[in-house]
C-alpha cells in the first residue's frame, strides 16, 4: 500500500516531498495558513501564471472548505470535490501533456526546458494544492492543524481524493501526442497502483489522443531494470494496444539524458560529451 501513497504524491509532483509515507505522518496537521496559501496561489495563477484565465478564487476556496469540513476527516470522497472542480474548468492545447510516475525530479527539469509542456502542476488545482496537507478536525467543523490521519489509514483521505479527481480531470483533457515519463531504474516502472496506472491511464481517451509516447529513463549510474522491452513497461504497452492507442517507446531519450547530465556532469555516462571535441558529434553519437 505504501507505494500507492507515494505515488499520489508524485502526481502532485506537487505534493511529493511531503507525501511519501514516511513523511505523511499522523502528527502532520493541516498546513498552517492554508487559506492564505491556497487563495494567494490562486491569485498568483490568474494574475501572473496564466493571466488569460478567469477564476473566482474566493469561491473556489469556499467550495474546497465546504467539501472538507462537512465530512469526517477520513471520508472526503472524490465526489465531494465536484463543485469545486466545476468552478475551475480548464482547456489545454493538445500535444503537450506530460504524465509521469516516479520521475518527479526529472519531470521538473524537463518541464522547465519547455514551458509549453503541461503537467498536472500547471493546472490551477495542481498549482494551488501542491505540497499542502489538510483534514477536518475530528470533533468540530474546521481544519485540524495539529494532526491529520495517515493516508493509508483512511478510506477516503481528503488529500488523496482531491489529487485523484485532479489527475482524472487532467487525463480526460489530454489530446494529441502525450508523453509518459517512467523510471527505468526501478522494478514496476509502470505501477498499476500509481496515480498514472490506476487513474490517469483509464481516463485517457483513445479518440482524442494520437500517440502515447513512452520514455523510459534510467538513472545515469543505473541500475537498468526496466526498458521498452523489459518488465512492467510491456504491461503498459499491452494495455495501450488493447485500448486502441497508437504508441511509441524510447529508452534513451537524448534530451532527458542531457538534462540528467546537467544535474550530474561528473557521471561517467556524461564524460563522453564533456571530453568530446565537438558537442554535436558527442550528442549524435549517443
Ligand atoms: C528513479 O527512482 C529512484 C528511486 O525512487 C530515484 O532515486 C531516481 O531519481 C529515479 N530516477 C529517475 C530518472 O527519475
Ligand atoms: C506525434 O508522435 C508521433 C510518434 O512519435 C510522431 O511521428 C509525430 O510527428 C508526433 N506529432 C506531433 C504533432 O508532435
Q: Characteristics of this structure?
A:
single chain, 286 residues, alpha/beta, four-stranded parallel beta sheet, disordered N terminus, binds 2-acetamido-2-deoxy-beta-D-glucopyranose
Helix and strand layout, with pairings?
Blueprint: H1 2-11, H2 16-19, H3 34-49, H4 57-69, H5 82-86, E1 97-101, H6 104-113, H7 124-129, H8 158-173, E2 176-183, H9 195-203, E3 209-217, H10 232-242, E4 246-250, H11 254-263, H12 268-275, H13 279-285
Helix pairs in contact: 1-8, 3-4, 8-9
Describe this structure in words.
The protein is of the alpha/beta class and 286 residues long. It contains 13 helices and four strands. Strands 1-2-3-4 form a four-stranded parallel sheet, with helices on both faces. 38% of the residues are buried. Residues 1-26 have low confidence and may be disordered.
